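thread: overnight batch results

M.L. [08:02]
morning all. the overnight job finished for the chain we discussed friday. pasting input first so we're all looking at the same thing
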Amino acid sequence: MIRLSNLTKKFGDVLAVDDLTLTVKPGEFFGFLGPNGAGKTTTIKMMTGLFTPTSGSITIHGFDIQTQPLEAKLATGYIPDQPFLYEKLTGREFLYFSAGLYKIDYKTATERIKELTDTFEIGSWIDRRTEFYSQGMRQRIVIAAALLHDPKVLVVDEPMVGLDPRSAHIVKEVFKRKSKQGIAIFMSTHSLPVVEELCDRIGILKQGRLVFEDAFGALQMFKDKYNGQFESTFLELTK
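M.L. [08:03]
and the structure it wrote out:
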């Protein structure tokens, strides 16, 4: 479970996130939307311990990210918007390195890497150095690394960036399966079709404040008003 309570972040005089409160339950796929500069990535960086909140609290799988950071991070799989890899490592070496950070023993890591290599169809280039990877290949490796330790919570920032249609299909199917297995997924994205396809519930952020938060179907009253189009509804709520 993810719980954000009265979460606020200021950078000097700039209020990036303003009193944000929401909960994502186990097995729920939550879509986090908003225009550029709305505060989505700032929220995610606080959830993953990269930024410290100005006020408020974040609980991940029962652990407070500020007072129990290691426990919270061990329960979290984080997929950033820009995949970072150590370019002199092969994909396999990077996955073993990531497994070590999560305190996974060698035997279990080997089994998990084999499973994820098959799932993400990366066997043909898993032993090449990552400096030669395309953006899509980098993204698949980073997503595989985030799933190595069977996280209880998955925090995702723009997961489809740079993915070709086949890669995007694989990633979406993995996310659907993980959600059905009980993982709480918090996904920030600009892709409205992806949200329509995957999310059970959405939150729309505007200038750091939540302007809509409910089950996806609850948008219907707005969609009826704006020609039945999610895009038109989103633009109206964030204008």
